[in-house]
Write a structure and sequence with these properties.
Elements: E1 2-3, E2 6-15, H1 25-43, E3 48-56, E4 59-68, H2 76-86, E5 101-104, E6 107-110, H3 114-117, E7 129-136
Parallel strand pairs: 4-5, 4-6
Antiparallel strand pairs: 1-2, 2-7, 3-4
Helix pairs in contact: 1-2
Length: 138
């Protein structure tokens, strides 16, 4: 493999697969992102959205962007809370959605979403890649 005149050798390439159970933080993040997109589509069938969600302990972060013709009926915090409670993250459980501190940097644009949704296609299939390690060989 060459890059900018430097030769690289493939040192390792590991493919992995993981399966997570209901309630796992990865599943929770996916379900929150899905709930945000569902809320957008409920407001505007042509809605555009790219939303990333991450969590650690009692922190939940949302980033990305959405565009709908009308404002969402719910805040990002309300969507996170409803999703967590629906999963059973309730008082008395080790994880209580009511304690989540939600930080959203999602750009919520009001306008014609088709300027993006008709042109953007961010579809991909990722199978647990732990990318390759490259070492310069000379």
């Amino acid at each position: 493999m060459r890059r900018a005149g430097i030769r690289f050798a493939l040192v390792s390439w590991v493919l992995g697969h993981k399966k997570t159970r209901h309630g796992h933080p990865d599943k929770f993040c996916d379900q929150v992102a899905d709930a945000v997109i569902a809320e957008c589509v409920a407001i505007d069938p042509d809605a555009y959205g790219q939303v990333e969600v991450s969590t650690w302990s009692d922190q939940v972060w949302l980033s990305g962007g959405i565009c709908t013709r009308k404002p969402l009926a719910k805040s990002m915090r309300e969507i996170v809370l409803e999703t967590g409670l629906a999963l059973g993250y309730v008082p008395g459980n080790h994880i209580d959605a009511n304690r989540y501190k939600v930080t959203s940097t999602v750009c919520e644009r009001i306008g014609d979403p088709t300027q993006w949704s008709r042109h953007v296609n961010d579809q991909s299939v990722v199978i647990g890649c732990r990318w390759l390690t490259l070492r310069a060989t000379g």
